[in-house]
């Protein structure tokens, strides 16, 4: 019997369309866990997920069953495969209401204030985190408040464990493989756009409108909306924010339809962008993961779905998993592991071209320099500097011409004076 362990957004009750939840028919095909277990207004962090999922994994393994971790939120997959998280003390409860009194107090603080607080108790961690990365800064402060130990020291201790590395502790399960479904980019983009259209046909707007009325309107009215927490991080909420703020009778107006179309276009854009980020995560965190202890990654091509699903995806995946279970070499080779490039991940760089923007880490800095936004601003700056230099040169030439003209006038005047004296 196979057991599916579904990740992150699917843990929330309801909201089946926006979280692309498995159907009842699919759930009957195998046992699903960590599905529909959390109220949408509960704060459910990656630590909460790990603490809920690990006992289930251990129980499945103890019963000689095969657990399959499924999902697209790769950080949550990492939390199960590697020992990479810092746990709060056992007598402290991690899960709390998504918006509580402590949140209200924290929201009064600026990003700079929070970062200054972190610098006071954990200067090493503050130097690693961008001042505007409020979520990570707050998390490091939380770790210090819960444990009394700076987050940077705990991470250092974790990484120095046997099998650990720069990204955290050792691999938790040694006999693990990762199946990665690839797809040609153009085909994937078209598929994702169609998925958004299908979600709309299934009633996405009604689901969002109901959720907004039941859970979100009061928060918005209190000016406490935060799309960086809990279920609100899901793609689909903030894209339709302006549309949902309209009174129901105004949503069919010209303005409402315009906001609706803008939301649909934004949803398609961020969905494609998220898919690309997932690919980068697989390359950087699985195929280039520093420190060793990386499970083998196998790629199966889903480009020709659904026509060749059996031949290109299902059968190769089953043969790989069966080989692992039976202790044999898989029939297909894994994706080659790439030796990670040794880079500085924590130095802060300041881009004067982009108005003093701070970029943390060498790779992020290099990516920023190569970005279209930076390149465009750099070209404009070079153009301004060239025009300024041109104006300076013209002014200098004009000044020299004026000086030369003045000398000629003086010489002529002096000659005239001499002639007058002779007369």
From TrEMBL:
Residues 394-405 have a biased composition (Low complexity). Gene3D superfamilies: 1.10.20.140, Classic Zinc Finger, P-loop containing nucleotide triphosphate hydrolases. Residues 373-382 have a biased composition (Basic residues). It comes from the Eukaryota. Keywords: ATP-binding, Nucleotide-binding, Transferase. Residues 373-423 are annotated as: Disordered. One of its GO terms (biological process) is tRNA modification. Pfam families: IPPT. One of its GO terms (molecular function) is ATP binding. The keyword Nucleotide-binding applies. GO terms for cellular component: mitochondrion. The keyword Transferase applies. Residues 383-393 have a biased composition (Basic and acidic residues). Belongs to the IPP transferase family. This is tRNA dimethylallyltransferase, mitochondrial-like isoform X2. The lineage of its organism: Eukaryota, Metazoa, Chordata, Cephalochordata, Leptocardii.
């Amino acid at each position: 019997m196979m057991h599916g362990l579904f990740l992150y957004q699917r843990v929330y009750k309801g909201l089946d369309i926006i979280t692309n939840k498995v159907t009842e028919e699919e759930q009957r095909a195998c046992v699903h866990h960590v599905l529909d277990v959390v109220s949408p207004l509960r704060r459910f962090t990656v630590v909460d997920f790990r603490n809920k999922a690990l006992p289930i994994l251990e129980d499945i393994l103890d019963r000689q069953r095969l657990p399959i971790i499924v999902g697209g939120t790769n950080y949550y997959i990492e939390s199960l495969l590697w020992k990479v998280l810092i746990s709060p003390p056992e007598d402290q409860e991690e899960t709390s209401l998504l918006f509580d009194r402590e949140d209200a107090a924290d929201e009064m603080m600026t990003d700079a204030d929070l970062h200054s607080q972190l610098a006071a108790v954990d200067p090493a961690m503050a130097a690693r985190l961008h001042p505007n990365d409020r979520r990570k800064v707050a998390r490091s402060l939380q770790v210090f408040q819960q444990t009394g130990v700076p987050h940077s020291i705990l991470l250092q201790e974790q990484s120095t464990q046997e099998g650990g590395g720069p990204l955290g502790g050792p691999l938790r399960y040694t006999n693990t493989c990762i199946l990665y479904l690839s797809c040609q980019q153009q085909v994937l983009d078209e598929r994702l756009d169609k998925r958004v259209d299908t979600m709309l046909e299934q009633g996405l707007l009604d689901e969002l409108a109901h959720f907004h009325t039941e859970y979100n309107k009061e928060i918005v009215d209190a000016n406490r909306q935060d799309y960086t927490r809990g279920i609100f991080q899901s793609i689909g909420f903030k894209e339709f924010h302006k549309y949902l703020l309209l009174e129901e009778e105004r949503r069919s107006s010209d303005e409402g339809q315009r906001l609706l179309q803008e939301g649909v276009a934004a949803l398609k854009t961020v969905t494609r962008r998220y898919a690309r980020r997932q690919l980068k995560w697989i390359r950087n965190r699985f195929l280039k993961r520093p420190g060793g202890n990386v499970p083998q990654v196998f790629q199966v091509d889903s480009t020709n779905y659904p026509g060749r699903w059996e031949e290109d995806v299902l059968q190769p995946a089953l043969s790989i998993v069966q080989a692992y279970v039976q202790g044999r070499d898989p029939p297909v080779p894994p994706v080659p592991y790439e030796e990670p490039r040794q880079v500085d991940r924590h130095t802060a760089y300041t881009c004067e071209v982009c108005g003093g923007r701070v970029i943390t880490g060498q790779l992020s800095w290099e990516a920023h320099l190569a970005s279209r936004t930076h390149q465009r601003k750099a070209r404009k700056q070079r153009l301004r500097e060239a025009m300024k230099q041109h104006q300076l040169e013209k002014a200098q030439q004009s000044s020299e011409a004026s000086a030369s003209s003045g000398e000629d006038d003086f010489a002529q005047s002096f000659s005239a004076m001499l002639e007058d004296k002779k007369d």
